[in-house]
């Protein structure tokens, strides 16, 4: 099957990693064009599509549409309040985004010809971005400096024309002002170029630059090592060094020629320095402590985290960009506040290779991600019912949390066990769970406490918090029952109970236990239906009742539906009276089809696919636990599904018109 997210180290950029995708997306095919697969049947009742995790629906053809990109590596702010961001990765190629007044540009920036070669996102995957007058500059991951001319600076929907590129080498930071562009290279040299013609004025030998900005006198302020240095355009050191800036991440100059510093240390604040003489702090923006302030983890407009960039417009409005990493799995928040730090607007993205889950105690109104918590109102219009209420990751207190740098490309499960919350996260391709306990109430911060690891895809968490593993060294099915919490808050599990794999299966690839009925639902392959590709749920699903007894009984077995590439589904879940599967590729022209089966007898009930509220579009399903379902008290089903193409999770809200009944299907065995 596809392997579009293999992570490769970018030569020369050290710790920065970049995902490499198949060319199908890049060549203008946002979805596969294969239209075969199992039959599509509208389920009884009605359903609609909503979403969680992005400010925008993501409608639009390849290269067009509104969505908040997958990550922020760097950002700059123009005097009129346009925020421009750089990133190493966005699934649909939006590596440089423009944001203003709560909106974003519809047409992605695109290089042409040789300029777009060797870098994702039409050549725009980059490490830094700068803008001045009608010029936009992007330093991409191929070592090219892309140049664009903007027809109407400040109008983010106006045309931005590609002009060409210069070969500058890999860049760590960049700033533009007036007629000059300062480019800090990975090679330890700063290039000073003219913005109009890219003429190289001079080269300054200044190594290890992490940030750079240019003040009203055209002198440079440089983040180097743990200090900020003041340097002339000729390279002469000037008075004004600011020490003890080890955890600063970005610099910018405000409209009154003050210096803005993103302090990503314990303060989690944007610092404003007067630099007219000896630099000194004149203002601090954001509550000291960031997410730690007040109720730890609880979101608020003046609580910052994971600062990647900041800037001010000519009116003094502040713009802040936040993202753990660089890491496309991280939450992304772009926020604007006025001079009194009152919120003006906020845009965000919380999902990429991420599968959210419902909190089983809250009837579908609380949703968990790997590092976030959302409220959700199913009654509101599509995309309007969700709100991020907490970030559960504290990178300052827990710097070794696996979620910080790319290891949170995962699905989630939340369980309430003996009065405490336990968060389970599973990687994109399985391999076991990382476990996170929560600090004492009212804190919303979770921290890593344990892991249950091993090979294979067949992992599941039951309602009591026990862990099931269907691919084990001794070829049995293991159940790790939850035992207790230790005095120090560490979850403990019993030694695994082992169950033989039924003779029906040659390979088990999923094992989902329902404690309410003592039933185990297994996906896998048989002698008659062998394995087709990696990571799928298998050619058949079977239900076994009385599983924990000495004589489990096979209740039914069905063939799994096939998508347009003739592949079985990627993931399944159960809720209420139904089992839900989700396909990898399109089926009969419909993306990521969810197929519904009755738990009673395995009969097919119907199929769901994205509706026009999201442009009838979804990306490929690429996670082994990409779907979670819940039946609400009113009988409505909520089904939440991974959607990577435009950075969100889809939510299907299905209200059956009658008791769930199956339909005749030649696909049932």
Task: Summarize the structure in words.
The structure is a single chain. With 669 residues, the protein is mostly beta strands. Among the domains are: 249-351, Thrombin, subunit H, CATH 2.40.10; 352-657, Neuraminidase (6 Propeller). It is built from one helix and 52 strands. A four-stranded antiparallel β-sheet has the order 3-52-51-50, with no helix packed on it. Strands 4-5-6-7 form a four-stranded antiparallel β-sheet, with no helix packed on it. A four-stranded antiparallel β-sheet has the order 8-9-10-11, with no helix packed on it. The chain is elongated. The protein starts with 5 loop residues before the first strand and ends in a 14-residue tail after the last strand. The relative contact order is 0.12.
Number of helices: 1
Principal-axis shape: elongated
Report the major sheet.
4 strands, antiparallel
Q: Strand tally, please? A: 52
Secondary-structure map:
Blueprint: E1 6-9, E2 17-20, H1 23-26, E3 46-52, E4 74-77, E5 83-86, E6 96-100, E7 103-104, E8 126-132, E9 135-140, E10 144-150, E11 160-167, E12 171-177, E13 180-185, E14 190-194, E15 200-204, E16 209-214, E17 220-224, E18 227-231, E19 237-242, E20 248-253, E21 259-263, E22 269-274, E23 280-285, E24 307-312, E25 318-323, E26 332-337, E27 343-349, E28 357-358, E29 366-368, E30 372-376, E31 386-391, E32 410-417, E33 420-427, E34 432-438, E35 446-453, E36 459-461, E37 467-469, E38 476-480, E39 482-485, E40 491-493, E41 497-500, E42 507-514, E43 519-525, E44 540-545, E45 553-559, E46 571-575, E47 578-582, E48 594-598, E49 604-608, E50 627-631, E51 637-643, E52 648-655
Antiparallel strand pairs: 1-2, 3-52, 4-5, 5-6, 6-7, 8-9, 9-10, 10-11, 12-13, 13-14, 14-15, 16-17, 17-18, 18-19, 20-21, 21-22, 22-23, 24-25, 25-26, 26-27, 28-29, 29-30, 30-31, 32-33, 33-34, 34-35, 36-37, 37-38, 38-41, 39-40, 42-43, 43-44, 44-45, 46-47, 47-48, 48-49, 50-51, 51-52
